[in-house]
C-alpha cells in the first residue's frame, strides 16, 4: 500500500478495468505514440462503456490513473517515457 491507496486490493476487485486499460495502452503504443495520458485512456474507457452498455457507466476514480500508469511502465520498462509520471511520495 502506498499513500493510503492499496493497488493490490484495487486490482483484486477491478481486474477487468486493469485489463481494458492495459489493452488500450498497448493499442496506443502500437500506433506509434511515444507519449500518452493515462487519464485520457480512462476517459475513453468511460465514454465507450457509456455508449455500449445501457445504463451502465464505467466507474473508476481519477486518482487510480497514476497507479495504473506506474504498473504499466513497471511491466514495460522499455516504455518508461510513455506516461508522464511525477515522483511518487508515499
Provide structural commentary.
The chain is mainly α and 90 residues long. It is built from 3 helices and no strands. It has helices at residues 7-30, 38-52, 65-75. It is globular and about 30 Å long. It starts with 6 loop residues before the first helix and ends in a 15-residue tail after the last helix. The mean pLDDT is 85.
Treating each run of at least 4 consecutive H or I residues as one helix, how many helices?
3
**SSE order in H/E notation?**
HHH
Oligomer: single chain
Helix content: 55-70%
Report mean pLDDT, rounded to a whole number: 85
Report, as a whole number of angstroms, the end-to-end distance: 9 Å
**Computed CA radius of gyration, to the nearest angstrom:** 13 Å
Largest sheet: none
**What does the overall shape look like?**
globular
Q: Give the strand content.
A: under 5%
Uncertain runs: none
> What structural class do you assign from the helix and strand content?
mainly alpha
In total, the number of strands is 0
Amino acid at each position: 500500500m502506498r499513500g493510503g491507496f492499496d493497488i493490490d486490493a484495487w486490482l483484486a476487485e477491478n481486474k477487468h478495468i486493469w485489463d481494458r486499460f492495459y489493452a488500450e495502452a498497448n493499442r496506443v503504443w502500437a500506433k506509434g505514440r511515444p507519449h500518452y495520458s493515462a487519464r485520457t485512456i480512462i476517459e475513453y474507457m468511460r465514454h465507450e462503456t457509456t455508449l455500449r452498455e445501457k445504463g451502465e457507466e464505467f466507474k473508476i476514480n481519477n486518482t487510480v490513473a497514476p497507479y495504473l500508469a506506474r504498473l504499466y511502465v513497471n511491466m514495460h520498462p522499455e516504455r518508461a517515457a510513455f506516461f508522464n509520471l511525477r515522483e511518487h511520495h508515499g
